[in-house]
Design a protein that fits this description.
single chain; 52% strand; 3 helices; alpha/beta
């Protein structure tokens, strides 16, 4: 696969038929971003949108992908800290189009994030999974919404939505909102949401082994979030994600 590293706030890109491409989009500089991708037939794209916000200013991000017949999209959003409003819409318009989304997010202090992803299927035999996985600390508040929309002509579609979130403090809050709309028969579609909190017994386990509270929380966060990308086949992307998670955890 070819590798494309971009920082532009406005991205419009058409991936030609059959091309294999990895795109890394670094979104740490501007206050707003918009992305518009079109995957031609049989294109194979891994897109990573990385937003490491540690600034006071709010960032607004709009992302869209159109996936044509037999094309395959893996979209990874990484939202680590900051005031963020971010929306992603992946539209499978071709037969056998595939859209797999992984969204890893974290917030601390009094940060607020509003994150939304939608997988739309308008043709037959589509495939798509959404995984939203995140952590909130302190008094942070995250609203994460995942939605699957299967149209009238999308028979044979197989789609799944998973939301898995963890709050490290009793004052932190995460709203995990799943949604599913099916307009035809002969499809497989479902969703699940798991909301958990760290309790004192968890920290006692670490302290009994000589691990102080701050290090224990960092270890829990790292293990929880890292599991979202461990199955990726692209080693360079896995390494990038791990380095940026380490930077978020240990440079605050």
């Amino acid at each position: 696969m070819s590798f494309l590293d971009i920082t532009d706030p406005h991205v419009v890109h058409k991936i030609p038929e059959g091309q294999q491409l990895v795109i890394w989009h670094d979104m740490r500089y501007a206050e707003s971003y918009d992305v518009d991708l079109t995957l031609g037939p049989r294109a194979d794209v891994l897109f990573v949108g990385y937003c490491p916000r540690r600034l006071a200013k709010k960032v607004n991000i709009m992302q869209y992908a159109r996936i044509e017949e037999y094309a395959k999209l893996q979209w990874i959003n990484v939202t680590f800290g900051g005031e963020v409003e971010q929306m992603l819409h992946c539209e499978c318009v071709g037969i056998h189009a595939q859209s797999d989304v992984r969204w890893i997010f974290a917030a601390c202090d009094a940060e607020k994030q509003a994150l939304s992803v939608k997988n739309t299927f308008s043709n037959a035999e589509g495939r798509g999974n959404i995984l939203m996985k995140g952590i909130a600390e302190d008094t942070a508040h995250i609203h994460c919404r995942g939605f699957i929309d299967i149209g009238f002509n999308a028979r044979g579609t197989d789609a799944y939505l998973t939301q898995n979130v963890l709050m490290l403090d009793s004052t932190a809050k995460i709203d995990a909102v799943p949604g599913l709309e099916i307009k035809t028969n002969d499809v497989k579609a479902s969703h699940s949401a798991t909301v958990s909190r760290m309790n004192p017994e968890d920290l006692f386990y670490f302290s009994s082994r000589g691990i102080e509270k701050g290090a224990a929380r960092a270890m829990v966060t790292e293990g929880f979030l890292r599991s979202a990308w461990e199955s990726l086949k692209h080693a360079q992307v896995r390494d990038h994600l791990q380095k940026n998670l380490d930077r978020y955890l240990y440079s605050r």
